[in-house]
Amino acid sequence: MRIGEIAALVGVTSRAVRHYHHIGLLPEPARQANGYRAYTVRDAVLLARIRRLTEIGLSLDEVRDVLADDAGRELAEVLGELDADLARQQREIGERRQLLAALLAAPLTSDGPLSPALAALLEHAPATTSPAAAKDREHLGLLDAAGGGDGSEVFAALRPLAEDPGALALYDRLDELAGAGTDDPRIAPLAAAVAAAVPDEVLAVIPEGEPSGTGLGRVLLDDYPPAQREVVRRVMETLAVRVQGSRR
Description:
Elements: H1 3-10, H2 14-22, H3 41-55, H4 60-67, H5 75-105, H6 116-124, H7 131-146, H8 152-163, H9 165-175, H10 187-197, H11 200-205, H12 215-221, H13 226-246
Helix pairs in contact: 1-3, 6-8, 9-10, 10-13
């Protein structure tokens, strides 16, 4: 058989056969005097096996392992790994569909999609035109997305704080620092007031986060102008100390 004939017999393309030769997956057959490859039934059986293994999801490297004589893994082992991987993907798809169903069931907002828990929190927050409050809302959306939309305990604990009229006054004080420097005397008392306003119930349901100078904490801090950034940094540090103290 020539390459076109074996390809048609097995149900692959001639290009695929040449690729398998190129990567050493399918041995080159003997050539006739005219230079054409001469494929045998054994070549067709091996090519058919390669096709079956790739169709069930094995990579070419995994196919190579299966076809290897002594060094390769057993077919049952490779297929078992493939089945476990497919089961994992199936679970993840199911979890994402459940989250999507919850998002579709929640009120749709201009800054959505939000998790039902965050949507409920923002729904009960008082209306305000404060730029600092708007930034806080954006950051909550970022935390919601970064956490996979599963922050129901945290957002439920934040609800009393969101409904507290005193929180609006803190936002106003933070807005007043928008153009100030890091040596502004209003920074320290405002940071202390904000940290004191966060109830222990909130700290009890959030995991110990990374330091404010790295990762997501740094991203959030960099979103503020200097004086506001210093307030938020001090609040983060104070809350981190409270979290550590409560868990000793």
